[in-house]
Write the structure tokens for this entry.
Amino acid sequence: MPLPQFHEIFLPLLRRAADGREWTLAALRGPIADDFGLTDAERAELLPSRTQTRFVNRLCWAKIHLERAGL
């Protein structure tokens, strides 16, 4: 499965936020990657800058957009 776009991560993030637990971004990485059925290779794919994985980057952008929307 291809990596999800940042907007495709909104719903899994919102579901986790609604479960009443305190989630750190680091703790969300695995469960949300599992939601999308990502392989180890897909989870490890780096951005061209090689400073962050592509998936974590998209997860961070999804979180930022939801925060800016007041969610």
Q: What stands out?
A: The mean pLDDT is 96. The radius of gyration is 12 Å.
